[in-house]
Specification:
The chain has one domain (2-219): Clavaminate synthase-like (Double-stranded beta-helix, 4-Layer Sandwich). The protein is of the alpha+beta class. It is globular. Strands 1, 2, 3, 5, 11 and 13 form a 6-stranded antiparallel β-sheet that branches. Strands 4-12-6-10 form a 4-stranded antiparallel β-sheet. The chain has a 3-stranded antiparallel β-sheet with strand order 8-7-9. Helix content is 18%, strand content 27%. β7 (128-130) and β8 (137-139) form a beta hairpin. The model has no long low-confidence stretch (mean pLDDT 91). It binds fe (ii) ion. Fe (ii) ion is lined by residues 78, 80, 199. Residues 181-217 form the TauD/TfdA-like domain. This is TauD/TfdA family dioxygenase. One of its GO terms (molecular function) is dioxygenase activity.
Length: 220
């Protein structure tokens, strides 16, 4: 599996895709193998390393998840684990099932954004409260002291009047023509550099939960 991973593309574009449909091992095993070559796979909220993601109505979702906030609607652009002191470096996602109209995943590499100097400054100076239970903290989206972006409308609350504007700066509406879309097919694995590429999901309403199953492994 590892020889299929295009490290150069991952490094230059911020994400890369692998077709594992012909692999002789199971998809979960392939995802775990790939994740292991990138770093240390880590569980989220004590769950298994390989998580299954399906469209989930709000009432059945985990209390601190995007599904709880947005249900089967579109997920805003975000990074995963924005509530960790240092977010995970890579997110490995794989399509276990898709019925032809599975909600697409959108990707937005931060380095391609054309922001004004004022807008860039706001990313560095506007403070958000990052909800993480007893370990909540305050943080900006960007900082010269770190190389990762921290952004997730699901767990970051504005603390001042410029907060909502910063949220809209990184919304999918604003960058609709720059989004790179993943049309999921069974067996496709996508590796995303979570430090510099935002991701979101199209609305999944009306899609049977079993018809759109992604596997995900977080890598530190
Ligand atoms: Fe995510």
């Amino acid at each position: 599996m590892n020889d299929l991973l295009n490290f150069r593309e991952l490094s230059t574009r911020g994400w890369t895709a692998v077709d594992a449909s012909a692999a002789r091992i199971g998809l979960a095993q392939a995802v775990e193998q790939l994740a292991g070559t990138l770093g240390r796979p880590v569980p989220l909220r004590g769950r298994r390393l390989v998580q299954e993601l399906r469209p989930t109505p709000s009432e059945r979702a985990h209390p601190r998840s995007l599904s709880m906030l947005f249900g089967e609607g579109a997920f805003p652009l975000h990074i995963d684990t924005a509530h960790w002191p240092v977010p995970c470096r890579y997110v490995v996602m794989a399509c276990a099932s898709a019925d032809g109209h599975a909600a697409r995943t959108s990707l937005l590499p931060i380095g391609r954004l054309t922001l004004t100097r004022d807008e860039q400054s706001m990313l560095h100076t506007t403070v958000f409260r990052v909800r993480s239970g007893r370990h909540s903290f305050f943080a900006t989206v960007a900082s010269r002291e770190r190389s990762f972006i921290r952004f997730d409308p699901g767990c970051m609350e504005p603390t001042c009047s410029s907060g909502p504007h910063v949220m809209s700066l990184l919304s999918s509406n604003r960058w609709a023509s720059s989004l790179e879309e993943i049309d999921w097919e069974p067996g496709v694995i996508v590796v995303v550099d979570n430090w510099r590429v935002l991701h979101g999901r199209d609305a999944a309403a009306g899609i049977e939960s079993e018809s759109r199953t992604l596997l995900r492994v977080l890598v530190q």
